[in-house]
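MODEL INPUT / OUTPUT PAIR
PAIR INDEX: 1
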Amino acid sequence: MAIVAGLADVFSKNPPKKGQVVLLFQPSEENGQGALRVLNDNRFKKIKVNYVFALHNLPGFSDGEIVLCRDTFASASKGMIIKLYGKTAHASEPENGNSPAIAMAEIINGLTELTKKRKFSDFSLITIIYARLGDVAFGTTPGYAEIMATLRTYSNSDMEKLVKDAENIAGEFAKKGKLEYKMSYVEEFPATINNNNLVEEIENIAKSLNYKYSYKKKPLRWSEDFAHFAMKFPGVLFGLGVGVNHSQLHNPDYDFPDKIIENGVKIYYEISRRIVNYS
């Protein structure tokens, strides 16, 4: 946001000679809802969009380094919620109820092993993030269980396959345990797919600014809701290095280095000047 604010200051003194540049201060990026709300906003629909660009700071790369990736830059992901409904009973008579405990364990194991047993075109991962079984009541057997998992893939096609396989596993063990079940999804992100012609343009701009640049061979494992924009318009998400030994994103000691703000402002300005104005 500081970089975009800095870009606004530059534009106030050197406005685009033709065309229009929209600076988007978008909320709710972390939960995947912000981009969709913008895209569905009638005010945004009035804007004729030719290109979209975004950057994300990246630890592990030198200060101000431009980090590029052809095709997919960031993974697809979604949060999966599985709810299992059984029947409670007295803890001394578990046979009179129907506990989802065994099914819950089998589902967790099945999801964890899925990507090891099934082949996907590229990286795929299921991470169990939360599980709940019944309540803290030593006199009662559980009648409800809940499992939450994050699904990740490099490609949207693999995500479709992973979701289908995960749902089959949940359904199989729920039915085996004679349980009712429901599945839902939250924080859904498609893969962020870059326009390769625009990636090359940004490489050329980095060279002209004498900025160090590099290409990642593999996409990032985390996801970005910028993917929703990139699915509709030609665009690029690229990285801006914050230091080779810098604390990782979301670590408690992470601190954004202000010294790279200028690098971000300059490359955004050159993108607008060379790609937008002279396209």
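PAIR INDEX: 2
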Amino acid sequence: MSSAGAQLQAANLPDPLGPSDFRPIDEGKAKLGQLLFYDPILSGNRNISCGTCHHHSHGSADGISLGIGEGGKGVGPKRIALDGEDRIRKRVPRNAPALWNLGAKEITLLFHDGRLSVSNIYQNGFNSPAQEWLPKGLDSILSAQALFPVTAQFEMAGNPKENEVAGAVHDRIDAAWPIIAKRVRGIPQYGKLFVDAFEDLSDPADVTIVHIGNALGAFMGSEWRSYDSPYDIHIAGDDTALDDQQKRGLDLFFGKGNCSACHSGKLFTDQKFHALALPHFGPGRTRMFDPYARDVGRMGESDDLADAYRFRTPSLRNVSLTAPYGHNGAYPTLDGIIRHHLEPLTSFDAWNKDLAALPKVPWLQAVDFISFSDRRERARLRSKVDIEPMDLSQEDVSALVAFVNSLTGTKSKSGRLGRPSVVPSGLPVD
């Protein structure tokens, strides 16, 4: 590359990501949150934790397309659905999102459809599925996010007749949170840790779901920070950090490939919503009174037809650690998801269900691909594409894959505190 070309490239690159881009770490809350994150005490049946689907061994995700939440056993691709009277009725509707850099100050919305966002519409700091019932005092969007998996039937709560948490959620979402808080503060070790970590607490009896959410938010926001990748070293001035293929991929990413139009900024996401015509399978998420098994994306939150089948742009930092890809994990490789971006409709038509990494659940196999086989739903998905086809060679695609791999952290990729071996409840740690 000529010196003029190198200067132009540098001018087009986002500013470096660093510690000042994140919220401050409260070490006491983060260490408490680490224990809570891996403690099944937060789940309805005390048998699954946040860490089950966002595990250190799988880059803060779970390595499968659609997970098995409450009612399963094991971690990642080895997780199985348990049979019996309380067997699962659905898979988790969407791919477990990775947690890298979600503690950054610029993150203002979460979930694939953005149904949680920073807002004061309900005078509690957030626009969320809990609306005005979300409690005040949550100090970050990650703290707010932490309260929802524990109330989700197919993630952590369980079926309404199985436990008091699921039964309470069936009445109203905020009815479950005091039950969970009482469980936690009743464990002496947790009680002491909360009093030590929170200045507003002098008695464990005063621990609420807000304290639990804030501890979990502190852990997630500080555990998975990554800005020490070869790419970061490169933009700091070390021209040897990237090899020639990665440099070529960088040029394509910010140039001809136009990848940075959506994967922009320090986090490689514009935090906006785009329709890619990804094939649908699994239960999906749709509008409240829609009986069909499909996933309408952002429209399910906004109720705006213009948002149909649009999903939030994911960050690409450490994405090499968190396959499969897409809001439902439709593609097992970076090569596959990049090729889909280049030829969305051709790729949609060629996609086959063997690409989906779905743990075997015999009683769900008949419904896993209902909408994928439905001619009308396929036509609707094909009609909503926000990206234009692009002609790149196999060498170009390989270079893009190499560059995206250069966004993987070095020392940071294992997390900061890691996975605890034991938790105060005494329950097994996944």
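PAIR 2 NOTE: The CA atoms of residues 195 and 202 lie 6 Å apart.
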